[in-house]
């Protein structure tokens, strides 16, 4: 598993505002979108391209285009939906699939309640959007779901992560090609499974509801 933790003052600044409990949903949503666009730049570093011939006003030359099958972006409902616009802004030709996972607040285990993905993900590069890598339970479920359908490699973009979450994903995805891109690596989890210092419940902060 490859892990990239962002190291850029703009990202740290935006995360600081995001963490602040006084930041209201409209600002939280706008910042999430901006952060994902910045993180997507790193997450797509190995996106597959193929050579294309083009004609500039001056000369014929070679460039690159994103290869087919196109990358598949998979926001994990509900909070991952708040990350979708920021991702497709950077990769507008990507296809989008949906996976709905909900965490049982007692056992902290994920269950699937919605799924809209292509049946065959052979040769697909997949980009999972999930703002909080807490215990790692949801991300492990999502990543293995995609590999079971044939995905070639999976990159997860998360705003915040924990050492426990990274360890869980690493252990559950041995031998798979997995990359995790984090805005920040936080200290850990509290007894209720919240990331510390964290930002609270990302879905609630994005949508202002429970
Ligand atoms: N999910 C969240 O939204 N927040 C956390 O702190 C942990 C999991």
From TrEMBL:
InterPro entries: PRTase-like, PRTase_dom, Upp_B, UPRT, UPRTase/APRTase. Allosterically activated by GTP. Catalyzes the conversion of uracil and 5-phospho-alpha-D-ribose 1-diphosphate (PRPP) to UMP and diphosphate. Belongs to the UPRTase family. 5-phospho-alpha-D-ribose 1-diphosphate binds at residues 78, 103, 130-138, 201. Its cofactor is Mg(2+). GO terms for cellular component: cytoplasm. Gene3D superfamilies: 3.40.50.2020. The gene is upp. This is Uracil phosphoribosyltransferase. It comes from Homoserinimonas hongtaonis.
């Amino acid at each position: 598993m490859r892990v990239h933790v962002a190291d850029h003052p703009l990202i740290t600044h935006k995360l600081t505002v995001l963490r602040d409990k006084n930041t209201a949903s409209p600002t939280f949503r706008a910042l999430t979108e901006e952060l994902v666009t910045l993180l997507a730049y790193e997450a797509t570093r190995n996106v597959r391209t193929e050579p294309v011939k083009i004609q500039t006003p001056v000369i014929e030359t070679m460039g690159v285009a994103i290869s087919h099958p196109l990358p598949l972006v998979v926001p994990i409902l509900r909070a991952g939906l708040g990350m979708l616009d920021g991702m497709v802004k950077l990769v507008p030709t990507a296809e989008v699939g949906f996976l709905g996972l909900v965490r049982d607040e007692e056992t902290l285990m994920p269950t699937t309640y919605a799924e809209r993905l292509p049946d065959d993900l052979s040769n697909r590069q997949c980009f999972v959007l999930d703002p909080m890598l807490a215990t790692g339970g949801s991300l492990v479920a999502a990543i293995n779901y995609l590999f079971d359908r044939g995905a070639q490699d999976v990159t997860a973009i998360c705003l915040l992560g924990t050492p426990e979450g990274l360890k869980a994903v690493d252990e559950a995805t041995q031998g798979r090609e997995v990359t995790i891109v984090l805005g920040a690596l936080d200290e850990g989890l509290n007894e209720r499974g919240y990331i510390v210092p964290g930002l609270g419940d990302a879905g609630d902060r994005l949508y202002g509801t429970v």
